[in-house]
Amino acid sequence: MTYGLGIESSCDETSIAIVRDGKDLLSLKIYSQIDSHSPYRGVVPEIASRAHLEKINSILAEAMDESGIEFSDLDYVAVTSYPGLVGSLMIGAQLARSISLVFGIPIVAVNHLEAHLAVIGLERELPPFPWLGLLLSGGNSSIYLYKGFGDLQILADTRDDSLGEAFDKVSAVLKLPYPGGPYLEAKANVYNPAKAGPNPFPKLLKEDGEDLIRFSYSGLKTAVLYYLKANAENPPLEKISYFFQKTAFELVTRNVRKAIAQTGIRTVVAAGGVLANETLRKQLEKEKERSRFDLFYPGKKIYCTDNGAMVACLGYHLWKQKSFVGLDFKVSPKRNFEQII
Ligand code: KG4
Predict the structure, then answer these.
(1) Residue 158's domain spans which residues?
(2) Looking at the whole model, is its pTM more than 0.90?
(3) 161 CB less than 6 Å from ligand 1?
């Protein structure tokens, strides 16, 4: 049996998990900082790193207690080392160094984005590589070519806002709470599509041909703003939310279709905070039937958000490959960090 500890502190969640054999979750603790950041409607780096520092030791103690194992049972400590807020990543990195030093176990440095995709290993046998990794979160709207553990290449990216960011910004103009994704989804869900007229928002990137795969959501955000101004007397929040989602998700499924056509890869793994959205899950399921590919995404919504379990899970596979780092390993805000070290 292999026991691994996963540490996640890249943004606004402090999280620790203990995983057995890369697939059995023994414990997962997450402290969300949302309440500290919501007055600013965004993550404030200084607040984030201070909160990680305050919470990380108690989260570690709770996770170890729940797991029923001892530190001396651990085979590796995995930690998110990039991309993320540097001050926050350093808190997790320092904890990993201490555990490694005291208990003599190797450190596995993990790419946060890759961990989001590999987390499906906690719910099922991993499908064979290569995969198309669709990552939709607060910081990403991208499609990756994922050929094997530690081998992730970007295939498509956003020109401007990420999808999660668009949800958050649009929900701000609709005066919904932060972070806006779940609130906007709830508004969209109560809209009756049977009485829906034409979509007030234009199709995104309609000028793009089949060869060009990219995301862009800032135009949609502006379109929502103008529509809201034009209907300021009685803003139809549910209708706006419904058509915002419809327009935004159409670009997602279109890009998945293009990525499959371009690469011939028919295994799609979708992940990130926005995958908590039920309408998006359904749209992807429909696209799967239409374009005939294998689709995987975390069943449990807790695995969509930032969490230590995904770090411990990917850490296991990297540990098996002996991808260890020394105590002097670095953290980085860059997502192509592995190409520059
Ligand atoms: O992956 P994640 O937890 O962390 C960051 O990237 O920071 O993603 C957070 C993002 C936020 O923008 C949030 O609004 C969005 O995921 N999100 C959702 C839903 N739940 C969270 N977006 C749409 N629908 C949801 N139900």
Answers:
(1) 129-297
(2) yes
(3) no
